[in-house]
Amino acid sequence: MSKNTSESLGDFLFHKIEHSDMMSGFIVGHLVLENLLLRGIERYDNKIGAYASKLKFSGITEMALQLEVINQKEKAVFDSINKIRNKFAHDLHYQPLRTDLLNIFKSAATAFSDMTDGLSQGVETLSDPNWTYEPGDYTLSDLFIQIAYDISEADDWV
Fold it and tell me: Where are the domains of the chain?
């Protein structure tokens, strides 16, 4: 995401994901998180950040862990998100199970702060066995927004 936009990162995530199908919303959220992890690594060291930008997501999260940009619990959530992203990449008809998403939300709720209650609301929403994702559902955007709040700095949001 360009820093030259007047739209905040939170608004960007909400608007891009809220009306998207599951795959599009998930991939946008994944890309934003990857971008924020790279910014965190770059803040640690510009040269390491340039190297990190050439890595796969799993390498980026491992580097972010080693540099203490994220902790082990946060990395576990990123690994779970990446696992679903990879399934979308290899199967265009893939639809994650509600229980898989619920497990990510539960892990995220223990790893990240929940400033706007989006993670706890997501756990509650996804606990309903009748839940299905439909465009306009804010559950998915809340996951990525809450994580993004935790791993970013103020200048990442403008």
Answer: 9-153
